[in-house]
Amino acid sequence: MTVMTRPAPSGRLRIAAGRTPGQLFLALVAVAAMVLLSGIVVAVAAGQRSTLADEVATEDGPAADRALRLYRALSDADATVAAAFLATGVEPPALRTRYDDDIATASAALRRAAADGGGGPQVEVLTAQLPVYTGLVEKARAYQRQQLPLGAAYLREASGLMRDTLLPAAFELSRERRAELGADRSAAGATQEWGLIVLVVTLGLLLFVQRRLFRRTNRVFNRGLVAATLAVLLTGGLLVGGDIAASGDLSASHARGSFPGSVLAQAQVVALQARADEALALVARGSGQEFEKDYNSRMAELVGEDGKSGLLGRAAPVLAAADRSSADGRVLADAARAARDWWEAHRRMRAAEDEGDYAQAVRLAVGTDPGTATEHFTRLDEMLGQLLENAQRRFGREAAGADVPWRFVAVGAMLLALLGAAGAAAGLQQRIGEYR
Amino acid sequence: MRRTLSMVLIALLGLTACGGGEPAPEPAVKARLPMPVGAHDPAPRPSAAAPAPGGCDPRASLRPEGALPAAGAMPAGSTMDTILKRGRLIVASDQNNYLFGFRDPGSYQLVGFDVEIAREVARAIFGDPDRVQYISVPSAERLNAVAQGRADIAAASITITCQRRQQVEFSSDYFTGAQKVLVRKGSGYTGMDSLRGKKVCAVTDTTSIRTVFEHPAQPLAVSATSWTDCLVLLQQGQVDAISTDDNILVGLVAQDPHVEIVGPALTDEPHGLAMPLDKPDFTRFVNQVLERMRADGTWTGIYRRWMGAYEPVLNQKSTPPQARYR
């Protein structure tokens, strides 16, 4: 034993002897209990954080993705059906398939959204109005097949329902899901005040008991109590470390995944709506000024009047921070170029229609030759989709690890608490033994 | 006292528990019908009618002078000569007026009654009816396009009014329409008089919706942004009738065999081609082309092609309207 001692008047020891074993026993129970309690508090809180972090990765994130997919599928349906309307004769099978897939995707996403819970009013509006929308589209198609202008009227009504009712509900649902994700993410990364308070109290109690013992026995260190103190300090270290590790993962999942994802998704939806405007302006045959105005303001929102700002301009620094390889940044620059080319092709299309060359305007808008609006739009849409997928993958990767530190903290805190309590008990038991 | 109270409470609790045990009937869900974008029920009341300039005969146009020049040989310095040298006639047209001016969805070609009239003007200038460029302008902009020189002529079922005469020159009447009422077959409505308190659709800011508002039977006006939107409302059961010029109504009848035109003429609607006020030589030329079309059967041929099937319900029959000059 290498316990350091200090010479003390032997008389004092004798005087205290009558009361001390009882007091020491009480101290033993209190200290061991506090050490155990602090470990349990920390472990339980860490367990909750780990569950939350797991939810962020496996429930909130995917639910937010699904809501986004619903929003995107509906916008795509709107744009696709309008473009298909411009084709001569029967609509092209590729566009028909794309629309059908959009509706199937939206229905599946809607079913899952209902199962995910929350978003009640939005889900209700969407489930009630989606069949009405598809009904109007089919009516429009039936008239279009008979080459009657009434088809375009039903198409306009369908598109109005989509834009005024369905898309706002889907947008709201997606916003709610993102808010849930954000709330759970900050809860999972929140500092554990209670754990820290209990640890500090336990540490205080340990120091107090050790100081009293020192006064009584003049022995500076008691091995058991020192071990218990170390255990409590280690638990504290574990807690802070776990906090840093988990919130690091979680904020990385936001900065590298969900945040760039939401910016990119917004850009993609704006592009889809501009595409629908472009086609609807032509479907309206000379009375599509509202759609034309809409198209231009959406393109300005997307790339800015200067072609360098807008949503895509704002996404550049976000992606630069999110993707270390800067490969995404290059894709984004290409996407911005595609958007500018598209706007340019649209202007040529507009000039053709204004001059009465309707066939040429349609060719420029929905034809598949190089240099048409279709080509640039498709390129833009595909690149944004690819960037969005990358962001979602990064989110999954970062968020998936966030529950691990907390699990480590929970197990570690329990082990340390057991060790600390055992140490405290052993140390005090030794002192009690000295009185026998 | 306290015991009775608690017993009552227990009894009440028992009752509510029983009530909760039975499944409550699901409330009936009512469908929410979609509406065309921009439709309003009720329609906003149009601002007070602009007073028509008095003492004007809307039909009186400029009298043709001399013989019609041969195609391709227009008098030097004339408006027609400028058009001839340019190589094409610029026409402000309607692309949404079924049977009169609309894009054939199969070929994107602009076709219809008005379009053929415009092509006859091109034939008279160039000897080739294909030398036409149609510019796409919204209906509210058609007269401006002519007045500002962006188009040589507007051929878009424009009703001749004294008020519009202050902005453009009109040709002689080439199609006499009349505002009537379109209803579902078998609905029992016989005209505007039988539509008291019923919903009648018309396009926002037209003379037609004004007529609906001012009719003594006091129908309830519903507005939409296009006539096909009105037909959508009629098919969806959200209005009982549509009222406007019969030449527009006939385009709706052609798209839905379950509707019919009923009732007496509510208004007299002469239709003319519109030309710039400062090019009277062109108006005289166009009137001469119309005279020739009336005389040689061209007009009747065009009428039969587009309107033949609907002659019984139209105000305009297959005999062309007589021109009046001032």
UniProtKB/TrEMBL annotation, chain A:
Keyword Transmembrane helix included in the entry's annotation: yes
Keyword terms: Membrane, Transmembrane, Transmembrane helix
Transmembrane segments: 194-213, 225-246, 406-428
Name of the protein this chain belongs to: Secreted protein
Originating organism: Virgisporangium aliadipatigenens
Lineage summary: Bacteria, Bacillati, Actinomycetota, Actinomycetes, Micromonosporales
UniProtKB/TrEMBL annotation, chain B:
Coiled coil residues, start to end: none
Region (Disordered) location: 34-75
Pfam families found in the cross-reference section: SBP_bac_3 (PF00497)
Biological process terms in GO annotation: amino acid transport
Transcription regulation recorded as keyword: no
Chain ranges of the Solute-binding protein family 3/N-terminal domain: 88-310
Keyword set, alphabetical order: Signal, Transport
CDD domains hit by this protein: PBP2_GluB
InterPro entries in UniProt: Bact_solute-bind_prot3, Solute-binding_3/MltF_N
Signal sequence, renumbered to the chain: 1-19
Chain intervals with Low complexity compositional bias: 46-75
GO cellular component: extracellular region; outer membrane-bounded periplasmic space
Protein family membership: Belongs to the bacterial solute-binding protein 3 family.
Protein name stated in the entry: Putative glutamine-binding protein GlnH
